[in-house]
Automatic annotation (TrEMBL):
Lineage of source species: Bacteria, Pseudomonadati, Pseudomonadota, Alphaproteobacteria, Rhodospirillales
Function as written in the Swiss-Prot or TrEMBL entry: Catalyzes the reversible oxidation of 3-phospho-D-glycerate to 3-phosphonooxypyruvate, the first step of the phosphorylated L-serine biosynthesis pathway. Also catalyzes the reversible oxidation of 2-hydroxyglutarate to 2-oxoglutarate.
Gene Ontology molecular function terms on file: (S)-2-hydroxyglutarate dehydrogenase activity; NAD binding; phosphoglycerate dehydrogenase activity
Membrane-crossing residue ranges in chain numbering: none
The protein, known as: D-3-phosphoglycerate dehydrogenase
Native organism: Candidatus Endolissoclinum faulkneri L2
GO biological process, one term: L-serine biosynthetic process
This enzyme's EC code(s): 1.1.1.399, 1.1.1.95
Sorted UniProt keywords: NAD, Oxidoreductase
SUPFAM superfamilies in UniProt: ACT-like, Formate/glycerate dehydrogenase catalytic domain-like, NAD(P)-binding Rossmann-fold domains
InterPro entries per the UniProt record, alphabetical: ACT-like_dom_sf (IPR045865), ACT_dom (IPR002912), AHAS_small-like_ACT (IPR054480), D-isomer_2-hydroxyacid_DH (IPR050223), D-isomer_2_OHA_DH_cat_dom (IPR006139), D-isomer_DH_CS (IPR029753), D-isomer_DH_CS1 (IPR029752), D-isomer_DH_NAD-bd (IPR006140)
Domain spans labelled ACT: 341-413
UniProt keyword Transmembrane present: no
Record Pfam families: 2-Hacid_dh, 2-Hacid_dh_C, ACT_AHAS_ss
CDD domains assigned: ACT_3PGDH (cd04901), PGDH_3 (cd12176)
Length: 414
Protein backbone atom coordinates (compact mmCIF):
# COMPACT_ATOMS: atom_id res chain seq x y z
CA UNK A 1 0.00 0.00 0.00
CA UNK A 2 1.23 3.53 -0.80
CA UNK A 3 2.25 5.65 2.15
CA UNK A 4 1.02 8.78 0.34
CA UNK A 5 -2.73 8.39 0.78
CA UNK A 6 -2.68 11.54 2.91
CA UNK A 7 -2.22 14.61 0.73
CA UNK A 8 1.55 15.17 0.32
CA UNK A 9 2.77 18.26 2.13
CA UNK A 10 4.09 19.84 -1.04
CA UNK A 11 0.56 19.72 -2.46
CA UNK A 12 -0.98 21.56 0.48
CA UNK A 13 -1.23 25.16 -0.76
CA UNK A 14 -0.79 27.84 1.89
CA UNK A 15 -1.43 31.54 1.26
CA UNK A 16 -0.18 34.24 3.64
CA UNK A 17 -1.56 37.78 3.25
CA UNK A 18 -0.72 41.19 4.71
CA UNK A 19 3.03 40.89 5.14
CA UNK A 20 3.02 38.23 7.82
CA UNK A 21 6.38 37.88 9.59
CA UNK A 22 8.99 35.61 7.91
CA UNK A 23 8.96 33.37 10.98
CA UNK A 24 5.65 31.89 9.79
CA UNK A 25 7.08 30.83 6.43
CA UNK A 26 10.18 29.41 8.14
CA UNK A 27 8.11 27.24 10.48
CA UNK A 28 6.06 25.91 7.58
CA UNK A 29 9.08 25.21 5.36
CA UNK A 30 10.92 23.46 8.20
CA UNK A 31 7.89 21.24 8.69
CA UNK A 32 7.93 20.24 5.01
CA UNK A 33 5.26 22.61 3.68
CA UNK A 34 6.97 24.06 0.62
CA UNK A 35 3.90 25.25 -1.29
CA UNK A 36 3.72 28.60 0.53
CA UNK A 37 2.68 31.77 -1.31
CA UNK A 38 2.64 35.33 0.01
CA UNK A 39 0.79 38.52 -0.88
CA UNK A 40 2.02 41.51 1.07
CA UNK A 41 -1.25 43.45 1.27
CA UNK A 42 -4.89 42.91 2.14
CA UNK A 43 -7.36 42.10 -0.64
CA UNK A 44 -10.90 43.30 -1.21
CA UNK A 45 -13.65 40.70 -1.35
CA UNK A 46 -13.55 40.02 -5.09
CA UNK A 47 -9.77 39.74 -5.19
CA UNK A 48 -9.75 37.57 -2.07
CA UNK A 49 -12.27 35.13 -3.52
CA UNK A 50 -10.09 34.79 -6.60
CA UNK A 51 -6.83 34.46 -4.63
CA UNK A 52 -8.00 31.64 -2.36
CA UNK A 53 -9.07 29.29 -5.16
CA UNK A 54 -7.20 26.05 -4.51
CA UNK A 55 -5.83 27.28 -1.18
CA UNK A 56 -5.95 24.84 1.75
CA UNK A 57 -4.70 27.07 4.58
CA UNK A 58 -5.02 30.85 4.66
CA UNK A 59 -3.13 33.27 6.91
CA UNK A 60 -4.37 36.83 7.42
CA UNK A 61 -3.89 39.74 9.80
CA UNK A 62 -6.55 42.32 10.63
CA UNK A 63 -7.42 43.94 7.30
CA UNK A 64 -8.62 40.98 5.23
CA UNK A 65 -12.30 40.27 5.83
CA UNK A 66 -13.38 36.65 5.61
CA UNK A 67 -17.11 37.12 5.14
CA UNK A 68 -19.72 34.41 4.66
CA UNK A 69 -19.49 34.91 0.91
CA UNK A 70 -15.71 34.54 0.88
CA UNK A 71 -15.71 31.43 3.06
CA UNK A 72 -18.42 29.71 1.06
CA UNK A 73 -16.47 30.39 -2.12
CA UNK A 74 -13.31 28.79 -0.64
CA UNK A 75 -14.12 25.19 -1.55
CA UNK A 76 -10.68 23.79 -0.67
CA UNK A 77 -10.05 25.77 2.50
CA UNK A 78 -9.46 23.61 5.62
CA UNK A 79 -7.99 26.11 8.13
CA UNK A 80 -7.63 29.84 8.73
CA UNK A 81 -4.90 31.50 10.76
CA UNK A 82 -5.42 35.00 12.14
CA UNK A 83 -1.89 36.26 12.73
CA UNK A 84 -3.25 38.60 15.39
CA UNK A 85 -4.97 38.54 18.76
CA UNK A 86 -8.47 39.30 17.47
CA UNK A 87 -10.58 37.23 15.07
CA UNK A 88 -13.45 39.63 14.40
CA UNK A 89 -12.29 39.86 10.76
CA UNK A 90 -13.62 36.33 10.24
CA UNK A 91 -17.25 35.20 10.12
CA UNK A 92 -16.71 32.56 12.81
CA UNK A 93 -20.18 30.93 12.73
CA UNK A 94 -19.87 30.35 8.97
CA UNK A 95 -16.36 28.96 9.36
CA UNK A 96 -17.61 26.56 12.04
CA UNK A 97 -20.55 25.44 9.94
CA UNK A 98 -18.15 24.68 7.08
CA UNK A 99 -15.81 22.72 9.39
CA UNK A 100 -12.98 25.26 9.13
CA UNK A 101 -11.05 25.88 12.38
CA UNK A 102 -9.76 29.42 12.93
CA UNK A 103 -6.53 29.83 14.88
CA UNK A 104 -5.05 33.00 16.37
CA UNK A 105 -2.25 34.16 18.66
CA UNK A 106 -3.92 35.44 21.84
CA UNK A 107 -0.75 35.88 23.90
CA UNK A 108 2.11 36.78 21.59
CA UNK A 109 1.71 40.56 21.47
CA UNK A 110 0.39 41.25 24.95
CA UNK A 111 3.69 42.72 26.13
CA UNK A 112 3.93 45.01 23.12
CA UNK A 113 0.46 46.49 23.70
CA UNK A 114 1.10 46.88 27.43
CA UNK A 115 4.40 48.68 26.82
CA UNK A 116 2.81 51.09 24.31
CA UNK A 117 0.08 51.86 26.83
CA UNK A 118 2.63 52.63 29.54
CA UNK A 119 4.48 54.95 27.14
CA UNK A 120 1.22 56.73 26.31
CA UNK A 121 0.37 57.20 29.99
CA UNK A 122 3.69 58.93 30.54
CA UNK A 123 3.40 61.07 27.40
CA UNK A 124 -0.18 62.09 28.17
CA UNK A 125 0.57 63.09 31.75
CA UNK A 126 3.64 65.05 30.69
CA UNK A 127 1.98 66.65 27.67
CA UNK A 128 4.89 65.33 25.62
CA UNK A 129 3.00 65.02 22.35
CA UNK A 130 1.86 68.66 22.29
CA UNK A 131 5.32 69.89 23.27
CA UNK A 132 6.90 67.76 20.54
CA UNK A 133 4.56 69.07 17.84
CA UNK A 134 5.34 72.65 18.84
CA UNK A 135 9.07 72.01 19.01
CA UNK A 136 8.95 70.79 15.43
CA UNK A 137 7.27 74.09 14.55
CA UNK A 138 10.01 76.02 16.34
CA UNK A 139 7.92 76.82 19.44
CA UNK A 140 9.59 76.34 22.85
CA UNK A 141 6.96 75.25 25.42
CA UNK A 142 9.15 74.80 28.49
CA UNK A 143 6.71 74.67 31.40
CA UNK A 144 5.72 72.41 34.29
CA UNK A 145 2.08 73.49 34.18
CA UNK A 146 -0.12 70.46 33.47
CA UNK A 147 2.87 68.12 33.53
CA UNK A 148 2.54 65.37 36.11
CA UNK A 149 4.30 62.23 37.29
CA UNK A 150 2.55 58.89 36.96
CA UNK A 151 3.68 57.80 40.41
CA UNK A 152 0.79 57.84 42.83
CA UNK A 153 -1.87 58.20 40.13
CA UNK A 154 -4.70 55.71 39.65
CA UNK A 155 -4.91 53.60 36.49
CA UNK A 156 -8.31 52.09 35.71
CA UNK A 157 -8.16 49.06 33.41
CA UNK A 158 -11.38 48.02 31.68
CA UNK A 159 -10.83 44.40 30.62
CA UNK A 160 -8.50 42.49 32.93
CA UNK A 161 -7.35 39.81 30.51
CA UNK A 162 -3.96 38.93 29.04
CA UNK A 163 -3.04 42.51 28.17
CA UNK A 164 -4.78 44.11 31.13
CA UNK A 165 -2.90 42.01 33.67
CA UNK A 166 0.47 42.72 31.99
CA UNK A 167 -0.32 46.42 31.95
CA UNK A 168 -1.24 46.30 35.63
CA UNK A 169 2.11 44.76 36.56
CA UNK A 170 4.06 47.40 34.61
CA UNK A 171 2.00 50.23 36.04
CA UNK A 172 2.44 49.02 39.61
CA UNK A 173 6.21 48.84 39.11
CA UNK A 174 6.07 52.56 38.28
CA UNK A 175 4.22 53.35 41.49
CA UNK A 176 0.70 53.60 40.12
CA UNK A 177 -2.36 52.39 41.94
CA UNK A 178 -4.28 49.95 39.72
CA UNK A 179 -8.00 49.25 39.74
CA UNK A 180 -9.82 47.17 37.17
CA UNK A 181 -13.23 46.09 35.94
CA UNK A 182 -13.98 42.87 34.08
CA UNK A 183 -17.28 41.24 33.20
CA UNK A 184 -16.04 38.01 34.75
CA UNK A 185 -14.58 37.39 38.18
CA UNK A 186 -10.80 37.64 37.78
CA UNK A 187 -8.16 36.91 40.38
CA UNK A 188 -6.20 40.05 41.21
CA UNK A 189 -2.49 40.14 40.39
CA UNK A 190 -0.18 42.12 42.65
CA UNK A 191 -2.03 44.91 44.42
CA UNK A 192 -4.64 45.54 41.70
CA UNK A 193 -8.13 46.06 43.10
CA UNK A 194 -11.37 45.06 41.35
CA UNK A 195 -14.21 47.55 40.83
CA UNK A 196 -17.81 46.38 41.00
CA UNK A 197 -18.90 48.51 38.04
CA UNK A 198 -17.34 50.53 35.25
CA UNK A 199 -18.82 53.71 36.71
CA UNK A 200 -17.15 53.01 40.04
CA UNK A 201 -13.84 52.69 38.21
CA UNK A 202 -14.38 55.88 36.19
CA UNK A 203 -15.03 57.91 39.32
CA UNK A 204 -11.60 57.00 40.74
CA UNK A 205 -9.25 56.65 37.76
CA UNK A 206 -6.85 59.35 36.56
CA UNK A 207 -6.21 57.24 33.45
CA UNK A 208 -8.67 54.77 31.90
CA UNK A 209 -7.27 52.14 29.52
CA UNK A 210 -9.53 49.85 27.48
CA UNK A 211 -8.59 46.23 26.76
CA UNK A 212 -11.80 44.56 25.60
CA UNK A 213 -12.73 42.44 22.58
CA UNK A 214 -15.27 43.63 20.04
CA UNK A 215 -18.59 42.01 20.91
CA UNK A 216 -22.24 43.01 20.79
CA UNK A 217 -22.14 44.21 24.40
CA UNK A 218 -18.88 46.17 24.04
CA UNK A 219 -19.61 48.11 20.84
CA UNK A 220 -20.20 51.74 21.73
CA UNK A 221 -19.47 50.99 25.40
CA UNK A 222 -17.90 54.39 25.96
CA UNK A 223 -20.78 56.66 25.07
CA UNK A 224 -20.85 60.39 25.75
CA UNK A 225 -22.47 59.73 29.13
CA UNK A 226 -19.75 57.28 30.10
CA UNK A 227 -16.97 59.60 28.95
CA UNK A 228 -18.55 62.41 30.96
CA UNK A 229 -18.62 60.07 33.97
CA UNK A 230 -14.80 60.06 33.95
CA UNK A 231 -13.00 62.39 36.34
CA UNK A 232 -12.50 65.96 35.18
CA UNK A 233 -9.05 66.15 33.59
CA UNK A 234 -8.63 62.36 33.25
CA UNK A 235 -7.09 60.58 30.25
CA UNK A 236 -8.62 57.87 28.05
CA UNK A 237 -6.58 55.24 26.17
CA UNK A 238 -8.05 52.85 23.60
CA UNK A 239 -5.61 50.26 22.27
CA UNK A 240 -8.28 47.57 21.95
CA UNK A 241 -11.00 47.95 19.30
CA UNK A 242 -12.15 51.04 17.41
CA UNK A 243 -15.83 50.29 17.97
CA UNK A 244 -15.62 50.66 21.76
CA UNK A 245 -15.59 54.47 21.88
CA UNK A 246 -17.96 57.11 20.48
CA UNK A 247 -15.37 59.20 18.62
CA UNK A 248 -17.58 62.30 18.36
CA UNK A 249 -18.15 62.24 22.12
CA UNK A 250 -14.42 61.83 22.72
CA UNK A 251 -13.65 64.78 20.44
CA UNK A 252 -16.12 66.98 22.32
CA UNK A 253 -14.69 65.97 25.71
CA UNK A 254 -11.17 66.81 24.54
CA UNK A 255 -12.15 70.14 23.00
CA UNK A 256 -14.07 71.41 26.03
CA UNK A 257 -11.40 70.19 28.46
CA UNK A 258 -13.40 67.55 30.31
CA UNK A 259 -10.60 65.14 29.37
CA UNK A 260 -7.01 66.33 29.44
CA UNK A 261 -5.98 63.95 26.69
CA UNK A 262 -6.45 60.65 24.92
CA UNK A 263 -4.37 58.04 23.11
CA UNK A 264 -6.06 56.06 20.35
CA UNK A 265 -4.49 53.22 18.36
CA UNK A 266 -7.65 51.73 16.86
CA UNK A 267 -10.43 53.38 14.90
CA UNK A 268 -13.94 52.52 13.64
CA UNK A 269 -12.73 52.94 10.05
CA UNK A 270 -9.10 52.29 9.19
CA UNK A 271 -7.23 52.56 5.87
CA UNK A 272 -6.83 49.34 3.91
CA UNK A 273 -3.17 50.07 3.24
CA UNK A 274 -0.44 52.58 4.07
CA UNK A 275 -1.13 54.31 0.75
CA UNK A 276 -4.71 55.22 1.72
CA UNK A 277 -5.67 58.43 3.52
CA UNK A 278 -6.35 58.20 7.25
CA UNK A 279 -9.43 60.18 8.18
CA UNK A 280 -10.64 60.83 11.72
CA UNK A 281 -12.36 63.58 13.67
CA UNK A 282 -9.45 63.33 16.13
CA UNK A 283 -6.92 64.63 13.63
CA UNK A 284 -5.53 68.01 14.59
CA UNK A 285 -6.32 67.75 18.31
CA UNK A 286 -3.00 68.33 20.08
CA UNK A 287 -4.08 66.50 23.24
CA UNK A 288 -4.80 63.31 21.28
CA UNK A 289 -2.02 60.85 20.51
CA UNK A 290 -3.00 58.93 17.36
CA UNK A 291 -1.14 55.82 16.23
CA UNK A 292 -1.94 53.59 13.20
CA UNK A 293 -3.01 50.35 14.92
CA UNK A 294 0.53 49.48 15.98
CA UNK A 295 -0.11 48.25 19.53
CA UNK A 296 1.10 44.75 18.68
CA UNK A 297 3.39 45.81 15.86
CA UNK A 298 6.82 45.22 17.28
CA UNK A 299 9.35 42.99 15.57
CA UNK A 300 9.39 40.69 18.58
CA UNK A 301 5.60 40.37 18.70
CA UNK A 302 5.22 39.75 14.97
CA UNK A 303 7.92 37.07 15.03
CA UNK A 304 6.18 35.32 17.92
CA UNK A 305 2.78 35.58 16.26
CA UNK A 306 4.18 34.17 13.03
CA UNK A 307 5.65 31.17 14.83
CA UNK A 308 2.63 30.53 17.03
CA UNK A 309 -0.03 30.46 14.32
CA UNK A 310 2.17 28.60 11.82
CA UNK A 311 2.80 25.88 14.41
CA UNK A 312 -0.95 25.53 14.89
CA UNK A 313 -1.30 25.05 11.12
CA UNK A 314 1.35 22.31 11.24
CA UNK A 315 -0.22 20.56 14.23
CA UNK A 316 -3.64 20.60 12.61
CA UNK A 317 -2.39 19.36 9.25
CA UNK A 318 0.12 16.80 10.55
CA UNK A 319 -1.73 15.44 13.55
CA UNK A 320 -5.27 16.81 13.61
CA UNK A 321 -4.85 18.82 16.82
CA UNK A 322 -7.20 21.79 17.11
CA UNK A 323 -5.76 23.31 20.28
CA UNK A 324 -6.03 27.08 20.04
CA UNK A 325 -8.96 27.15 17.60
CA UNK A 326 -11.41 29.89 18.58
CA UNK A 327 -14.48 28.48 16.82
CA UNK A 328 -13.94 24.75 17.03
CA UNK A 329 -13.81 21.88 19.52
CA UNK A 330 -10.29 21.82 20.97
CA UNK A 331 -8.51 18.46 20.88
CA UNK A 332 -4.84 17.88 21.68
CA UNK A 333 -3.67 14.72 19.93
CA UNK A 334 -0.63 12.44 20.03
CA UNK A 335 1.23 11.90 16.76
CA UNK A 336 -0.22 8.43 16.40
CA UNK A 337 2.80 6.42 15.28
CA UNK A 338 1.97 3.42 13.05
CA UNK A 339 -1.74 4.15 12.85
CA UNK A 340 -4.23 5.11 10.19
CA UNK A 341 -6.07 8.15 11.48
CA UNK A 342 -9.58 9.07 10.33
CA UNK A 343 -10.80 12.59 11.13
CA UNK A 344 -14.42 13.67 10.85
CA UNK A 345 -16.08 17.03 11.46
CA UNK A 346 -19.73 16.23 12.11
CA UNK A 347 -22.94 17.96 13.06
CA UNK A 348 -23.41 17.69 16.80
CA UNK A 349 -26.71 15.80 16.64
CA UNK A 350 -27.97 12.64 18.37
CA UNK A 351 -26.74 9.39 16.84
CA UNK A 352 -23.94 10.81 14.67
CA UNK A 353 -21.11 9.30 16.69
CA UNK A 354 -22.92 5.94 16.81
CA UNK A 355 -23.34 5.86 13.04
CA UNK A 356 -19.63 6.52 12.61
CA UNK A 357 -18.68 3.71 14.99
CA UNK A 358 -21.12 1.34 13.29
CA UNK A 359 -19.36 2.02 9.99
CA UNK A 360 -16.02 0.94 11.45
CA UNK A 361 -17.62 -2.12 13.03
CA UNK A 362 -19.07 -3.21 9.67
CA UNK A 363 -15.57 -3.14 8.22
CA UNK A 364 -14.21 -5.18 11.14
CA UNK A 365 -11.75 -2.46 12.17
CA UNK A 366 -10.42 -2.30 15.71
CA UNK A 367 -10.32 1.28 16.99
CA UNK A 368 -7.28 1.66 19.22
CA UNK A 369 -8.13 5.21 20.30
CA UNK A 370 -10.95 7.65 19.81
CA UNK A 371 -10.99 11.36 20.57
CA UNK A 372 -14.27 13.27 20.53
CA UNK A 373 -15.09 16.81 21.50
CA UNK A 374 -18.15 18.91 20.71
CA UNK A 375 -18.64 22.64 20.73
CA UNK A 376 -22.09 24.03 19.98
CA UNK A 377 -23.28 22.58 16.67
CA UNK A 378 -19.97 20.95 15.75
CA UNK A 379 -18.50 17.60 16.78
CA UNK A 380 -14.85 16.69 16.09
CA UNK A 381 -13.94 13.00 15.95
CA UNK A 382 -10.49 11.42 15.57
CA UNK A 383 -10.28 7.63 15.23
CA UNK A 384 -7.01 5.69 15.16
CA UNK A 385 -6.84 2.22 13.66
CA UNK A 386 -3.64 0.27 14.34
CA UNK A 387 -1.56 -0.58 11.28
CA UNK A 388 -2.38 -0.33 7.61
CA UNK A 389 -6.00 -0.30 6.40
CA UNK A 390 -6.08 -1.62 2.80
CA UNK A 391 -9.47 -0.10 1.97
CA UNK A 392 -9.00 3.15 3.90
CA UNK A 393 -9.86 5.32 0.88
CA UNK A 394 -13.20 3.53 0.47
CA UNK A 395 -13.91 3.92 4.17
CA UNK A 396 -13.14 7.65 3.93
CA UNK A 397 -15.65 7.95 1.10
CA UNK A 398 -18.28 6.23 3.24
CA UNK A 399 -17.58 8.61 6.13
CA UNK A 400 -18.07 11.55 3.79
CA UNK A 401 -21.41 10.09 2.69
CA UNK A 402 -22.80 9.94 6.25
CA UNK A 403 -25.63 12.47 6.61
CA UNK A 404 -23.99 14.20 9.57
CA UNK A 405 -20.55 14.63 8.02
CA UNK A 406 -19.42 18.18 7.34
CA UNK A 407 -15.97 17.09 6.15
CA UNK A 408 -13.55 14.21 6.67
CA UNK A 409 -9.91 13.46 5.97
CA UNK A 410 -7.32 10.74 6.37
CA UNK A 411 -3.86 10.77 7.96
CA UNK A 412 -1.61 7.80 7.26
CA UNK A 413 1.32 7.05 9.54
CA UNK A 414 2.15 3.55 8.23
Amino acid sequence: MSKELSRPKNQIRILLLENIAPSARNVLLNAGYTNVHEIYSALDQAALIEAIKGVHMLGIRSRSQLTEQVLKAASTLVAVGCFSVGTNQVDLPTASALGIPVFNAPFSNTRSVAELTIAEIVMLMRGTFKKSINAHKGCWLKTAIGSREVRGKTLGIVGYGNIGTQLAALAESMGMRVIYFDRFNKLSHGNAEPSKTIDELLAKADVVSLHLPEQSDTKGLFTEARIRAMKQGAFLINNARGSLVDIDALVNALKDGHLSGAAVDVFPNEPKSNKDLFESQLRGIETAILTPHVGGSTEEAQECIGEEVARKFVEYSDVGSTTGAVNFPEVQLPKGTLVTRFIQVQRNEPGELGRLNDLFARHGLNIVSQHYQSDGHIGYVVLDVCGAVPNCVDILKEIRQLTGTIRARLLNRV
